[in-house]
Amino acid sequence: MILYSNGFNIFDSTGNYLDDGDTIVPTSYYNQYSGESLLSQSSIFLPMDSNKYYFVTPANSEGNLCFSCHNDVMLYSVIDMNANGGAGKVVKRMIPFAMNGQFRKTQMMACRHANGKDWWLLKQGGDSNTVYKFLFTQDSVYNMGYQEFIEPLWGTWDIYGQSTFNLQGDKYATSCDASGIWTGKIFLADFDRCYGILSNPKVITMPKAPQYNPNAPSDSERLTKGLAYSPNNKFLYVIGQFNIWQFDFADSSWYHVAGMDTTFMQFTHYEASYYGGDGKLYIGNFGGTSKQMSRIDNPDAKGAGCNFCPRCLRLDSLGIYAIATTPPCMPNYSLGAQECWPLSNQDITINHSTFNVYPNPVSNKLKIDNATMKKKTLYNAIGLLILTTNDDVIDVRNYPKGMYYIKCGDQTKRFIVD
What is the chain's alpha carbon radius of gyration, rounded to the nearest angstrom? Predict the structure, then answer.
């Protein structure tokens, strides 16, 4: 273990506060929640090159403590694990990268950019299905806007729920049903790791559950706590309060994986779910003092073959004093690069270009020859579209220094802003 957090503080591998890692959210917010977050997906570590990490925390600048008060600010801190002789240090604290927003307390997940180095961070906002998108690069954080979808409407309560990507990073799912609504809606979409675009949206509805709170309507079980794609992408696991379901994408059927294994009063609710390094799916608990997590041993198998194992990760048997609530909020850190223009086949397109750009490097205005009044598209080094124009002179004085690509027709040129 390198680092861990309770959402409001950052600790080192020995369990002590990381240097300057205490109270990493606004003090009023920290005090309202007694110095720790009990909610899923309320913080995340994003590793970068040179042994540095971003640590992301949504927060409420007013310190509001209520079930229906959304967060209004997104913060990041930077950790340099080279500092203090390798012990690490927070070198930038609580930098706002989105303010005056409506961000849900849960439903935040990251996915590697297609370049294999940077990160897309997706955060659900407000009561409607609005997905905010941010790009974390090696030295900057970019607000990439949002996409808004008609369904589902999440409601004001946001203390439950989970967003997730499949292991390949090309599919996204999220759900967070509020108390009193209980629609059981789950939002699905394809995700483009090159450009951070959600497409082909779809909404599915979890079935009514056979086991639920006997003092509440049966629809109350349609309050989703967690989601996870199977590694082979054939199934989606949907975690409710008292029931676990498997959705089969091939025939849109539902299989009831598990319900309560004790009485309602004694049962600790199921929580969010994440994959471990062993390929098994781990499911935490919400509330209570359970010292065990449940597990799905064969998540690629249909029906009973998935092998649900109740409370099979037993921290008490290891002599560990801990409560097994939510598994760590971890993206797929091992996801590598994939090809996407202009990062692919660069040598071929660049070396055979029939137009010229100069000066190169350039610090003022870039001139293009042999492409008079043709459409030109300008991209930065990680493939983000910067400009589309028919002009033959481009003013680059306000562009950050670095490598860029300009495309005209099926030809590409690389140049440097100095």
Answer: 23
